Amino acid sequence: MMYQAAVFIHLASAIIWVGGSLFLALVLIPVLRRFMPAPGQPSEHPQLPPDLLGTVARRFRWISWVCIVLLVATGLYILPTRYGIGFAEFFTVGGHFVANLQIKVALVAIVIWLSVIHDFIIGPIASRMINDMQAGATPPGYLPLLRKCVVWIARVNVLLMVLILIVAVTMTRGAPV
Ligand code: HEM
Questions:
Q1: Residue 112 Cβ contacting ligand 1 at under 6 Å
Q2: What is the 168 CA–ligand 1 centroid distance (Å)?
Q3: Ligand 1 touching residue 173 (CB < 6 A)
Q4: Rounded to an integer, what distance in angstroms lies between the CA atom of residue 77 and that of residue 33?
Q5: Which residues, at least 6 apart from 97, have a Cβ–Cβ distance to it below 8 Å?
Q6: Quick check: CB of 10 below 6 Å from ligand 1?
Q7: pLDDT tens, 4-45?
Q8: Buried b (16+ CB within 10 A) or exposed e, 1-35
Q9: Ligand 1 near 67 CB (within 6 A)
């Protein structure tokens, strides 16, 4: 029962986190872009809140971090209780399962690291500068570069999340032959 509950929470968190991230990248951001004013121009859609994307991003940020914590916690619970894999087994050269698990955990570490940079450091800085710019302040020259970095980190992160899903499935179900 505890194992099934842990797998349910693991899968539900993965669905919400990866699904929510893909929704932002493939639906919300492209649609908002269509309505965004060009730099220095007044908005043609004044009924849109000025910091809509920032507000959505901050709202989804805490949901996605709850999912990340739940994924890691349930994953670390399942490993010893179901598969007898502890710290020592994780750091040895094992069979198919352990090898896939090591790749998966390495990818998860990279995604968490990129998410910290995106969610807590350069995302909020870029968002603040864009708001200031829309309020009439002159933006620093490096703002376009910073914006590009935010966008590309987010894109690479979503791709890595999908890669984690593929590695997760080959880990438990075997690689296709
Ligand atoms: C340190 C982090 C993680 C650990 C230790 C871990 C561990 C595990 C384990 C042990 C299973 C097998 C569960 C079973 O008995 O069926 C599993 C399955 C799975 N994990 Fe993770 N996981 C982690 C993070 C993630 C993340 C971040 C995602 C999604 C982005 C994810 C997605 C999945 C999926 C989709 C499955 C189901 C695969 C299948 O049933 O074929 N996991 N994980």
A1: no
A2: 5
A3: yes
A4: 41
A5: 83, 85, 171, 172
A6: yes
A7: 999 999 999 999 999 999 999 999 999 988 887 665 566 666
A8: eeeeebbebbeebbebbbeebeebbeebbeeeeee
A9: no
